[in-house]
Structures are given as structure tokens and as C-alpha cells.
Amino acid sequence: AAEEGFDLDEVNEGLDEAGHGPLPVLAVVGRPNVGKSTLVNRIIGRREAVVEDRPGVTRDRVSYEAHWSGRRFKLVDTGGWEQDVLGIDASVAAQAEFAIEAADAVVFVVDATVGATDTDEAVVKLLRRAGKPVVLCANKVDGPSSEADATALWSLGLGEPHPVSALHGRGTGDMLDAVLEALPEAPAQTFGATVGGPRRVALVGRPNVGKSSLLNQVAGEERVVVDATAGTTRDPVDEMIELGGKTWKFVDTAGIRRRVHLTEGADFYASLRTAAALEKAEVAVVLIDASESLAEQDTRIISMAVEAGRAVVIAYNKWDLLDEERRYYLEREIEKDLVQVKWAPRVNVSARTGRHMDKLVPAIENALAGWETRVPTGRLNAFLGELVAANPHPIRGGKQPRILFGTQAGTRPPRFVLFASGFLEAGYRRFVERRLREEFGFEGTPIQISVRVRE
Ligand code: GDP
Ligand code: GDP
């Protein structure tokens, strides 16, 4: 099955059925041949390992509903990534990254008879950095004589290795008990569950564009709470601001209010602050001084927000200073220098007069909605099928690469994985992105597309 893939969307769709509520997701990762599929089949029972047909695509299922001790969960088998032409190390790493992204807990399978390899160690690093619960499965411990092989895997630093024989069933019950302990009752935010607390906004922009003025304008006297958790009471890091009837968390406002008068390295510290604020935020409001020519630093900050994968709103400030002529040149500058973020909602504001402050919240909300959009796999593939039929990739060296299948691997921001029969040129990828936006919206959000080539 060359097109088999790791379909988080299918996981997601399954969850909404029958009012059971979303199920927590368990991913099984590990190198090829360590016994992942054997383990998955052991857990779900072979009878459920059906092959599913989708329009135009036949592939093996990769996610199953499973239960143990009266609890239900989704089991995701990442085995489909193995034939990736990226090579084994890279594909195992990609597998682990996906699992980390998607799963609420991970079973990491190691072949105890082989011991920990460099690839295993690399996966451990990824898993540890992500902080998701991990259960270490020391597989192929078929009898008591190989228990020592499992013990050796303490060296991975993932806690107790659970000796298992996926083939014969030995030890799987004990391991599943440990899994249930690690697995939360409900899935995490990655699956679109309601996000707790106020939405996090980063207000960014180069010095003097009007960030602190805007902050004062929106906070006014209405600043209700000061969030002192991350800083001290006197130097709050974030501020809760009431806007449009909702509370928003403006992150890292201390960095805005504390005017650092450094000549040397000021740009560097400003970039650090921007990067840190973006890291904590869901949506970036990039402030630009509309009265001046767009600076390279403006476009750099926009790129930082896009690269950080945040929803983006662009606010052109100091609108009160604009005359007809400047307005004309501004539009030309935007067309020339900001084409790559044409999808970002735009507001023309004045922090001084308060002009169009009421447009800020709807723009932020639209951007967040785009950021969280999920396209069901069926719709996506119907769309891709039509796109490929109407606009095939140009023939290169006698071959014509085709998109075989696609899935949306995640949201916040939307991430797509396309499986293709050959390398897709940058121009064609951009075309696909453009068409995706035309079809599904995605206002205010970057979208990420990765292509996996199948021979
Ligand atoms: P995957 O590539 O990680 O999915 O590995 P598979 O599940 O396809 O297993 C790879 C090989 O290891 C197969 O030949 C399995 O029969 C074998 N295998 C899997 N689990 C065990 C086990 O617990 N004991 C033994 N002896 N062999 C196993
Ligand atoms: P920051 O460095 O981005 O925080 O920028 P400030 O908020 O300190 O603003 C820099 C300067 O621009 C100050 O002199 C502000 O009074 C002025 N300013 C900010 N917003 C506006 C605006 O909308 N219109 C006008 N005319 N001036 C503004």
C-alpha cells in the first residue's frame, strides 16, 4: 500500500460520532520492524484491521478505536511513513513529530533484542522535548530469558521499559495499564476542543510604530486584571484587556511598555522580544506606521509571525497623518512588498484618535477562525482530485508528478500533507496553496504544505 498515510483527520472525524465525545489519542511510534503493527493488531484485535476505500484512493487505515479496562481511545499507527524516500532516520523523526503533535500520549516501541540505536536516541530527544506522556515498550521479549534486554532500555531515560511480546501477547496487559495511566481522559487542544482561557494576542512592530499608544488606547481605563503569574506584581508580563465584550490576553506587554533606550543591539533585543511574544501568542497584530515608507524591519516582523505559524492581522497605524498622496504610495508599497501576506486581514487605525479601534476585534476573530479551520479529508481529496484533473503538474523529464492523496495533519495553523508520485515544483505548490485559500478561506492564517514523495 504505497499511499498509506497518517491520517489525523480521520481520527478527528471518528471522534465526533455518536455523541461519545472526543477520545484521547495514543500514537505508536518506533523504527521499522520493531513490531509496531504487530502491537497495534494485538491491541485492537485483527478483526478491526479493515482496509478502507475512499473515492479514488485505496489505502490502509491507520487509526483505530481501541479499548482496555473499560476505557476507549484512538490508536494511531504511524507505520505508513516508513517507505518515505527521506530515508529511515528522517521519516522516523517525522513520524515522532506528528505523533507528538497529534497524540495525547505515545507508545514508543523499541526492539529489545537489538537494544537502543542512534535513531531510537534521536526519537527520545524529540519525545522528551515535547513533554507528552510516553510509555516505553520493550518489544520482542518473548520469554523470561530476554527480560534483561528490556532492563537495558532504562538507559533511554524514559522511565520503566515495559517488557512485551507483541507477537505472543506477553506483557501487553501490563503495558496497557501504564498507557491508561498516562492517557488523559479527554484529548488535548490540538483536536479543536474548546481552548481554555482568553485568546493570546501579541502586539508587535518595530519601534515607534505606536504599540504602547495602541495598548493604552485599547486598555484605557478598562484594563481589568493584571496577570502577574509570569512576572512580578509591579512588572506584569501580560495584560488582560477587555475588547469588544471579551477578555484578551495581550502577551508580553511589559516589553512594550518598558522603553529600552539602547542604541547598540536595540534591534536585536526588539527581535528577541518579538520572537518571545510570538511564541506565547495565538494571533499576532503587526503594527505598521502607515505614515512612513514600509521598512525592511516591518516585512521581517511579518515574516517572523508567519514563520512562527501564528494567525496574523496587519494594523496600519497613524492613519490620522495620511494624505491622499501617501495613501496612494502606501497601497503601491503593500502590493509590492506584502503580497506574500495578502491573506492577512487589514485594519487602518489611529492609536491617537481611536479611529477604527472597533475593527480590530472582528479582524482578530476572523484570523483565529482561519487559523483553526479544518477541512475534512473527503472534501480535501475531492478538491485535490478536481484540481489535479484540471491543472496537472507540468511534465518534467518525461514524467508527470501527481498529487495522489492529501490530508490536513493539523490546525493552528492549518497543515497539509500531500502525497505525490514525484517532486512538486515550488510554483505548483504555490498554485495549490492559492487554490486551497480560494476554496476554503483561511483568512488571516499561514498554511503549511508538505509533500511526501512516493515512488
Ligand atoms: P513495524 O515495522 O514496527 O510495524 O514491525 P512489524 O509489526 O511489522 O514487525 C516486524 C517483524 O517483527 C515481524 O516479522 C514481526 O513478526 C516481528 N515481531 C513483532 N513483534 C514481535 C515480538 O514480540 N517477538 C518477536 N519474536 N517478533 C516480533
Ligand atoms: P512604540 O515604540 O511602538 O510603542 O510606539 P509609541 O506608542 O511609543 O509611539 C511612538 C510615537 O508615535 C509617539 O510619539 C506617539 O505619540 C506617536 N503615535 C502613536 N500612534 C499614533 C497615531 O495613531 N497617530 C499619530 N499621529 N501619532 C501616533
Structure description:
GTP 2 binds at residues 205-212, 252-256, 317-320. Pfam families: KH_dom-like (PF14714), MMR_HSR1 (PF01926). Residues 24-187, 199-372 form the EngA-type G domain. The protein is of the alpha/beta class. 35% of the residues lie in helices and 22% in strands. It has 14 helices and 18 strands. The strands form four sheets. It has a seven-stranded mixed sheet, with helices on both faces. The protein has a six-stranded mixed sheet with strand order 4-5-1-6-7-8, with helices on both faces. A three-stranded mixed sheet has the order 16-17-18. α4 links the parallel β6 and β7 (134-139). α3 (88-102) packs parallel to α4. Residues 1-21, 47-61, 80-85, 188-195, 221-235 and 260-265 have low confidence and may be disordered.
Morphology call: globular
Overall pLDDT confidence: 80
Number of helices: 14
**Residue share in helix:** 25-40%
List how many beta strands DSSP finds: 18
Structural class: alpha/beta
Q: Regions with pLDDT < 50 over 5+ consecutive residues?
A: 1-21, 47-61, 80-85, 188-195, 221-235, 260-265
Descriptive terms for the model:
7-stranded mixed beta sheet; 22% strand; 14 helices; GTP-bd; single chain; binds guanosine-5'-diphosphate; AAA+_ATPase; 455 residues; ribosome binding; GTPase Der
